[in-house]
Amino acid sequence: MIEYIDVHKAFDRPVLSGVSLTVETGETLSILGPSGTGKSVLLKTTNGLLVPDRGDVRIDGQSVSNSDGGALGGIRRKVGYVFQYAALFDSMNVFENVVTGLPDGEAKRARSPEVLGKVCDALEDVNLDPAVVLRKLPSELSGGMRKRVGLARAIVGRPEILLYDEPVTGLDPVNTATISRLILEIRDRTHVTSVVVTHDVEQALEISDRLALLTHGKLRFVGTPGEFRASADPVVRAFADRRAAAEAALQLVEEEDKEIEEES
Amino acid sequence: MKTLARRTVLALLCRLGRTAGTVARHAGEMTLLAFRVAAATLTGRVALRDVLIQLQSIGVGSIPLVAVTAILSGVVTSQQGGYQFTSSIPLYVLGSVVTSSIILELGPVMTSFVLIGRVGARITAELGTMKVSEQIDALHSLGRDPVCVLAAPRIIAGTISMPLLVGLADFIGVFAGLVAARFSIGLGADSFLFGARLYWHSWDLLYSITKGFVFGFIIPLISVHMGFGTRGGAEGVGRATTSAVVLMIITVLVLDATFPPLFLN
Predict the structure, then answer these.
(1) A139 Cβ contact list (under 8 Å, min separation 6)
(2) Predicted complex ipTM exceeds 0.95
(3) Residues ≥6 apart with Cβ < 8 Å to A230
(4) Separation of alpha carbons A57 and A49, rounded Å
(5) Are A49 and B140 within 8 A, CB to CB?
(6) Contact B142 A84 (CB under 8 A)
(7) Is A11's Cβ below 8 Å from some Cβ in B?
(8) What is the pLDDT of residues B79-128, one digit of tens each?
(9) Are the beta carbons of B129 and B229 closer than 8 angstroms?
(10) For residue range B168-180, what is the model confidence (pLDDT) as tens digits?
(11) Residues A123, A133 contacting (CB under 8 angstroms)
(12) Separation of alpha carbons B65 and B58, rounded Å
């Protein structure tokens, strides 16, 4: 279980302003929201890549924000992170990249058949043929393949939690559908807890048990896909039915921006 | 007029204060990085394989350029010295001038500049690119410490390689000076070596190697620190690399200036 407790984070300006949210074990929760509203920042507080200025993030009751060294390392081994642009290591081939997702002890035995088997299994889990991609460098792969290698690296250590940062951004509809299907397959097979940050509402509605909408650093909506579709909130409707409600939402957001500017 | 002068002074003071603040911040962060590298090394968390890869890249890979630089330094010093020694000064003194210039100053400093251009800039650009493309975040999220995986191998390799490169540059530079003296002013090898021995201090070589050790530690330390601090895409990588090169050159020259009063008095 992941608990976000009154999370505040500011850089040049406040990004997260008191986000409280619980993600139950085995649940898939998607976080939606306009660009620059703090979705990725919230995701990065989950495994300690960013530390909240105030508040706390807990995984199975253990504080991430107050952990360091070995304790934080233990938490991070429970959590797989799929980066927006895969963040594969340029100088390593696919095999070496995926091996880094294994615990240190296993990664050091990279040449053992057992480790090779785990890497091949992870690649097959994301519909990649190990015989074709294993020795390729990231620069030799397409965008969709890189994302899938990033996903293989995240799941090879069998994490209990998977964090997806914009998993389908920049992908064509076929690759988008492939990634969505993979997220569902991995969830069904491993019962992993997933948090997905995405702009793609259709994907979020398809893969999520619940959705959260973040605006101006605060949660505006948390609920099931059904509740999301039925919401009367114009901003939620703008996301659920973009064309019909975008104009109304834009007007509302501009008014809110003005109010915030006046307050600050 | 008075107000304008006061504003100008205040603006200068503000700028000076900001610069001092930035220097203090960088110095503090680099000290912390150095401690973390030392801790990672002493607790055996740095892979020998990573260090060997960096030794090959930083040390062995720099030999050709260091050799060319040392040859040219030796030849130029010898020729310019020979040009000045055309009056009553005995020509064999040129041996001492060339040897001392190369070993005390040109060997370590020119080798440092080679390392800054060839290695330091590359490290900052490489780590900066890793930072902006979230590869460093990926290391963190995979439970790997970038200090152990990226920083320590480069700093260890620089600290080991540089004194050896300086020793090599000293030897090649003096030899090139000897050859150039023969061809430019007709000074024989025996006379050159006689002059070199006449004013030779045995600790000069240790002084040179010590400079190499210090510069070999500080150059990768600065470049790693600047790489880790990179922000904002390709432009940010370019900015960080330029800043790193400037900072490395200034630091090496300042440290170089502190050596004579500390060790030669």
Answers:
(1) A90
(2) no
(3) none
(4) 12
(5) yes
(6) no
(7) no
(8) 988 888 766 778 888 999 999 999 999 999 999 999 999 999 999 999 99
(9) no
(10) 999 999 999 999 9
(11) yes
(12) 11
Q: Which tokens go with A71?
A: 């304790």
How many Å apart are CA A232 and CA A220, to the nearest integer? 12
Angle at A16 between CA A10 and CA A22, to 5 degrees: 140
Q: What angle do CA A140, A126, A80 make, to 5 degrees?
A: 95
- Asked if A116 and A104 count as a contact pair (C-beta separation under 8 A), the reply is no
Six-digit token string for B219: 């150059």
Of A44, A77, A89, the CB nearest to B135: A89
Contact by Cβ (8 Å): A182, A151: yes
* One-letter identity of residue A200: D
- Flag if A89 and B133 touch (Cβ within 8 Å): no
Whole-angstrom Cα distance, residue B176 to residue B190? 15
Of B37, B248, B31, B226, the closest CA to residue B129 belongs to: B226
Q: Report how far residue A205's alpha carbon sits from residue A43's, in angstroms, rounded to the nearest whole number.
A: 19
As given in the structure block, the two tokens for residue A164 are 């997806």
**10 Å Cβ neighbour count for A225?**
18
Q: Which two tokens stand for residue A114?
A: 């057992």
